[in-house]
Amino acid sequence: xxxxxxxxxxxxxxxxxxxxxxxxxxxxxxxxxxxxxxxxxxxxxxxxxxxxxxxxxxxxxxxxxxxxxxxxxxxxxxxxxxxxxxxxxxxxxxxxxxxxxxxxxxxxxxxxxxxxxxxxxxxxxxxxxxxxxxxxxxxxxxxxxxxxxxxxxxxxxxxxxxxxxxxxxxxxxxxxxxxxxxxxxxxxxxxxxxxxxxxxxxxxxxxxxxxxxxxxxxxxxxxxxxxxxxxxxxxxxxxxxxxxxxxxxxxxxxxxxxxxxxxxxxxxxxxxxxxxxxxxxxxxxxxxxxxxxxxxxxxxxxxxxxxxxxxxxxxxxxxxxxxxxxxxxxxxxxxxxxxxxxxxxxxxxxxxx
Length: 353
Ligand SMILES: O=C(O)c1ccc[n+]([C@@H]2O[C@H](COP(=O)([O-])O)[C@@H](O)[C@H]2O)c1
Ligand SMILES: Cc1cc2nc[nH]c2cc1C
What we know:
The chain is built from 15 helices and six strands. With 353 residues, it is α/β, with parallel strands linked by helices. The chain folds into two domains: 66 residues, 5,6-Dimethylbenzimidazole Phosphoribosyltransferase, Chain: A, domain 1 (Orthogonal Bundle), CATH 1.10.1610.10; 271 residues, 3-Layer(aba) Sandwich (Rossmann fold). Strands 3-2-1-4-5-6 form a six-stranded parallel β-sheet, sandwiched between helices. Helix 3 crosses helix 14, helix 7 runs antiparallel to helix 10 and helix 7 runs parallel beside helix 12. The longest helix has 20 residues. The protein is globular. The N and C termini lie far apart (59 Å). Bound molecules: nicotinate mononucleotide and 5,6-dimethylbenzimidazole (DMD). One of its GO terms (molecular function) is nicotinate-nucleotide-dimethylbenzimidazole phosphoribosyltransferase activity. Pathway: Nucleoside biosynthesis; alpha-ribazole biosynthesis; alpha-ribazole from 5,6-dimethylbenzimidazole: step 1/2.
């Protein structure tokens, strides 16, 4: 059904460690602050301890962002105002350090790697660029499957491989990024499949479209869903018929992180759509996921509810690239640092109530 690598990766994902979580809860109760005063960060630190199976869990540095880039055949249906060439042009911009995510990553101390998993044009090798093209863009999902099952499997495997490579190179936390003109169409289609919600409820304005284009985008997604009848029971089938190469790779990236017990911060609508595929393949992978922010795309909120994840930031962003994940990274790292560095009432001689 899938592949040996995907199967062993899924089998390698195990539950959170209850003992480490208990130790983290007890430690939180001893730290020099009123109980519960760090709000959601306390439970996040407990989950990070459970994921690492140690208390305290490792400090979450270095951090590595992978931006998976790919093109989309559904672009032919005029679902976005931007030319497909912008995907390739933005890859060059990422490599030159000129994109928003580069500025954010420098601020937060996050390493950036770009992965060509399916950009339309052939790219030259460059520092910081992994050439892992599965095919030159997908086919138009409204007319035929976006890709073959074999290609979807290959893209998932690419994501697993990138996660493993970044972790082997020292990363203690992974962050998702994406670049692909027209990929909000594929994201909405996937979210509709995995949540059972109507396309009209999960389709947004992407990079910025008018009302007529929005209506066409919804119709295009409905046509693709009617044509292929993808099912949440067959995540690879859903990825291959209505997904994108970056969605498949991001699903693999999440699975790869979870199998190595490394947390992964999800960015926007593309990441959460891919995370739904990962969750469908391996429900326990959800425990490794952190929602960096809430994208304004309506599908993102629907997907986050299905993942049962509360986003850390809500800034009205809809850029992608990994920007929301990078902004959230210091929050997550700070939550873990609390367990390492805060004094207890005993050690600091602070009187308890
Ligand atoms: O991350 C998000 O939530 C998000 C929301 C809207 C647009 N984007 C980015 O914009 C591109 C896709 O937008 P579109 O309108 O061409 O489908 C792609 O490169 C995404 O990274 C990203
Ligand atoms: C300019 C531009 C930058 C982006 N970054 C991520 N998606 C994008 C889409 C566009 C159009």
